[in-house]
Structure formats: C-alpha cells, structure tokens
Amino acid sequence: MSAHAPAAPVGGHLMTPSMRLVVTLFGIGAAMILWRLIAGLGATTAMNDGYPFGLWIAFDVVTGTALACGGYAVAILVYILNKGQYSPLVRPAILTSALGYTLAGMGVALDVGRWWGLWKVPLFVWRWNVNSALLEIALCIMGYVVVLWIEIAPYLLERYKNGEHATMRRVARAAIPALKKASIWIIALGLLLPTMHQSSLGTLMLLANSRLHELWRTPLVPLFFLLTCVSMGYSVVVFESAFSALGFKRKPETEMLAGLAGIIVPLQFFVVALRLVDMGVRGVLGGLFAGDVRSMMVIIEMVLFLTPAVMLLSPASRRDLGHLVRSAMVMMFAGALYRFDVFLVAFNPGAHWSYFPSVPEILVTVGLIAAEVIAYVFIVRNFPILSGGGTAAPERQAA
Amino acid sequence: MGITRRAAFKAMLAGSAAVAGVSAATRPVSAAPLEAPADALGLLYDATLCIGCKTCVVKCQEANHLEPDTSGIDAKYNAPLSLSANAKTVIKIYKGDEGESYMKAQCMHCIDPACVTACMIGALTKGPNGIVAYNVDYCVGCRYCEIACPFNVPKFQWASNTPQIVKCELCRERLGEGKEPACTEVCPRHAVIFGKRAELLQEAKRRIAAAPDTYQPKVYGETEAGGTQCLYISHVPFDKLGLPTLDDRPAPELARNIQHTVYKGFIAPVALYGILGAVMLRNRRSADKPEAES
C-alpha cells in the first residue's frame, strides 16, 4: 500500500455531459416508479400469475446484489485472508455494495404489492416463519444494508472531523473512534450476512421444486449462488477500479487486479466442473443435449464461465488492464446469466404462461442503476473513498 | 498464524460445505406418507359425475364476494379461463385421445403446503381442519406463494393497488356458520362433495372398487406432494385433467431441508460469526494492519 497515496476525495464537478444523460435516465425511472405506485403492478409490469417474479426480482435483487458483493469479496480477501495489500480496494468496494444493496432494497419495495406493510417483516418476530428462505433473505438484506452504511460511515464522516460545522465535528469525532473500535464485529457481520442470504437466494427457487427445470434443480444451487456472488463481486471490483482510473484520470491498480484475477481463475473452473459432476450424479447430464432453449442456456452459461478463466490463464495476460476488464465483463455476465436463468428461464409454470419485462419495468431498473451511478460519483468526488490519486487534485485532503 | 487463517477460511466455506452436505440430507429417504390432521376437511371431485354446468364457479364467486371474471372472449361474459383473482374455483374441459372430461380446479389444501413454507410472516397458514387460510394483515404481496405452489393455485390481484392473494379457503367463513362450502352445496350432480378427508378417501376407494373399469386405479391427492385434502377420481388420466404428475415427497421438502440443515438452532451462523471475528482480531494484532492507512 506504500505505493498508494491515502484515500482522498476526487473533487471536480458533478454535472459532466455524461452525467446529464445518467440524471435523465434517473428522471425517467423516477417517473415510472411514481406511475407504478399510483397505477399498481398490473398496469405497469408484464408480471402475471404464471411469472409472479419478474425483472425487478431476477435482475435488481438477485443479480444486483451479487454485483454488489464486491464489498464481500474484498473483505474476505483483506480481513480474513489478511492480504493487506488489497486494502485500497476496500472503500470503493464497500461503497458500491452499500449503494447496490440499498437500491436492491428499493427494488423489492417497488415489487411487493403491499409495500406499506413491509415494516412488519422485521418487527413481527413472533410471526417469523423460520422455514421461509425468503424471510431469511429479507432480514439479512435489511441487516446488511445497515451494516454496509455503518462500515462506510467513518469514511463519510472523516471530512467533518476538522470541519467548520460544530455539531458535525462533534459527531464525527465521537463516532469515528467508536466505529473503528467495533469495526471487527461489524465487518464480521458484513461477512456473515452475505454468506447467509446469497446462498439462500439459491434455496429460494428450490421451493418451486418440480416447476424448476431439472438441469438447475439441485441442492447445490445455494453453493453456486455463493460462488457466483464472489466471482461477480471480484469482477465488479476490477471493472470499477478500471473505470475509476479512466473516468477520474487516476493510476489503475493493475498489479492488484492481476492478483485478484489469479484467485478467480480456479474458482470459475471449479464451478463448471462441479455443475457437470452434479448433473452426472443426478443423472440429468443427457438433458444438456436436448437442443431446446433451456439446455442451450445451460451450455451458454458454462461457456461464459470458462471464457474469462481461459482468457486469464497466463499470468502475463492478467497484467493487461484492457484484458482484465474484458474478462471481468464476461465473468459478470456469466454469473448474472446463471442467476437470471434460475429465476426466469428454469422456472416453468406451464405452457400457456409467458413473461417479457414491460417498458416501465426496464426503465425503472435502468433508473435505479442510474441512481447508483449518481450517488457513487457524488460520494467519491466529495469523500475520501478512492486512493492512488493522480492528476486530479483533491480539493480537501483527508486527515 | 497462516494455519489459523486457512482454518478460518475453511470455516467460511463451511457454510457452503454445509450446503453441499445438504445434498445428502435431502435425498429421498424412505418417506413414510404424511399424516393428515385428524380433523382434516376436504373435497372429493368425481370427474365421471361432473356435467360442466359451472354452478359451483358462480356460487363460489357469490359466496366469496368476487367480481365477475370477464377476461375471456369478448370481455363480456363471466367465464374465467383458469383460476384467477376473481375465480377461486373453475371448471375446465378435456377433449382428446383419452376421452372427454370436465375438471374442477381449486386449492388442493396440501397436508404440507409449499405456500405456507414460503410465506414470510404467516399470511398463509395451515389452520383448523387443515384448511390453508389467508390473512391479509400479514401479507406484503411478495408472491412467493405463487412460485412455491406446485398446482399454480394462489392468484394475485394485479389490477388492484391494494392487492391481495386470492385462493380457495374451503369457505371457512361459511363453515363457521354451519354451512358447507358453496361449490359442494350447489352441485346438482354431487360431483364434488365435502367432508372429512379420511371419509372422502374411503368413499373414493369404494367407488373405484365398485367400478374398476370406469375409474383410473388411483385417488389423486392421496399421496401426491405428500398428500392433499382435496381428492380426485377420474375416468381419464389425471395429467390430462391438468393435474401435475408429482412424487410423494412433500413439495416444500427439498428447500426446507436445506434451510433446516444449514440453520439448525442457528448454531452454524453464530459459530461462523465468532470465527470471523476471532480471525480478524488475530489479524489486527499481527504486524500487518490492513486498515492502517486510514
């Protein structure tokens, strides 16, 4: 870490031309959200009684939270495997996780029909159905959002420590040491909760039992969900690190990312091997050659899992930033497709049901992603998140 | 130190290993058939008797204060095409190679219902007489019950902005008034009858034994998905009636076993939490402080 300058605000103006586009997308999404709240789900979405889970669950929650597992993936590396050299990646990764999970939570709130009753889920303890994987996921995600914002709080408060605002200064000076002291147990919670709910997201669709296609219907789904959230988390870190370097004209952390890639390669091979073994043990391997849409999707998934692993096989290729980013994109897509498939493609409610997301559904999802980008850019410009500052002069130096 | 860290990482993966171990735990053991609640009530539908008059559909809508379902042709007629937010029961027809038959669909009132397993804070519960009952006060409209149900029964009020789940509750309010369910009360041919599950099962078997050439040699719902309280006998194969071919394991068994194995007594998560904290404490005490720069 000695090669890196301490984390500092990037500075600069928020409203660049590309940000204007992002803000516009957010505005459209917000209008669609309003429409959904006024007109209801039937009028604005393509979901139906055959496909009661649509884009908002399959993408915003199931895929979105996996993409938001950068914080989880980096925290395992830095705090458990004690690889301190990766610690400059912690702050941006936790920030993306906090934003990603917050927006996934908003996605859920829009998706449920009776959103005004959601508060009962965490509070009506005496009615908790411990058999429900969904209850566990809901509680874990709610808890994890809180944990992530607590983890990020010291970084956000840093700028107030010596600031002019007296109250904020007092809050910052009291809170930062307290949070640092408790940090181990907060971070431990931040590792436990994703381990629990990311695997349970896989358990979720196993309840559909016979209506889940046999190529995906295995007790190992929870394990595959856990492994994909780690690989997707890592690839988001690669992606984000490269784009922060590009967007904010900073020195890319290529060495570090190359190290990450080296860890991910065997994981990708392992996932594919385990899936094939699992299909073999369950005696459904022949289903791969059925030639229908579902069997093709499984084959595409596995090819996508293997592609980045092969791309990054030689250590030299891992040191090429462009190559890293391209492989990370494929890796992200592989995990996303697998999860998407379990929730939408593998699920078969019967021949006469069909689902394709409506325009408002898509625009809401795009709007939520836009909100995440806006918040990310705003926070890294104003708070000490990114380290290794290059040409852009930080406006305020963190203490 | 290295060994400790390695051990801890293994413990991290123990969560997933436990999940993997579940694959063994969830293999079908020689499953004894589930016992229905002693007071279980249900329906028996005899496809050979039904004439498709749909009186049950209309009476059900009336008794449950449902709007006419005009989703079918021309949007003029109250003619639900399948179970819907306005139809808790529906009559369908099968015409094909295996003959001709009507079919009544409604909630099967499973002995071990997947929808109840799904439901977060118990809006769906297995109530008195084994009736799968719905209480909107605890429903957030997540629709996980719709994913879970192997019979595709629960329906959602998509058109409403205060949507509820709609499904047959065996007219439990009418039962409280000493009446029988609306559909059985009005059936002119007694094609669908109401009673205790044990007695209905006996009656079903008696009918099959009395006319073995007429009936399929099986009572659908006796063991399917662990058994249901609504039972079917028919002259055409059950899959032709749209009843799914299911094994005898309770529908929610696989998912529930995983939850139970991984989270038994909440020991694994608490242990994992302790181990994670302990490893980080040791890491922090050791020379290389990961967050030293901030």
Structure description:
The complex is a heterodimer of chains A (399) and B (294). Chain A is mainly α. In chain A, 67% of the residues lie in helices and 0% in strands. Chain A has 13 helices and no strands. The longest helix of chain A is centred in the middle third of the chain and has 41 residues, at 166-206. The radius of gyration of chain A is 22 Å and the shape is globular. By secondary structure, chain B is α+β, with helices and mostly antiparallel strands. Helix content of chain B is 33%, strand content 13%. Chain B has nine helices and nine strands. A three-stranded mixed sheet of chain B has the order 8-1-9. In chain B, strands 2-3 form a two-stranded antiparallel ribbon. Chain B is globular, with a radius of gyration of 25 Å.
Descriptive key words:
heterodimer; A: mainly alpha; 13 helices; disordered C terminus; B: alpha+beta; three-stranded mixed beta sheet; 9 helices; globular
Share of residues in helices of chain A:
55-70%
Oligomer: heterodimer
The number of distinct helices of chain B, counting runs of at least 4 residues, comes to 9
Q: Work out the radius of gyration of chain B.
A: 25 Å
Instruction: Label the overall shape of chain A.
Output: globular
Residue windows where pLDDT falls under 50 for at least 5 positions of chain A: 391-399
Unreliable spans of chain B are 19-30, 289-294
Summarize the entry for a quick read.
The complex is a heterodimer of chains A (399) and B (294). Chain A is an all-alpha fold and 399 residues long. Helices cover 67% and strands 0% of the residues of chain A.
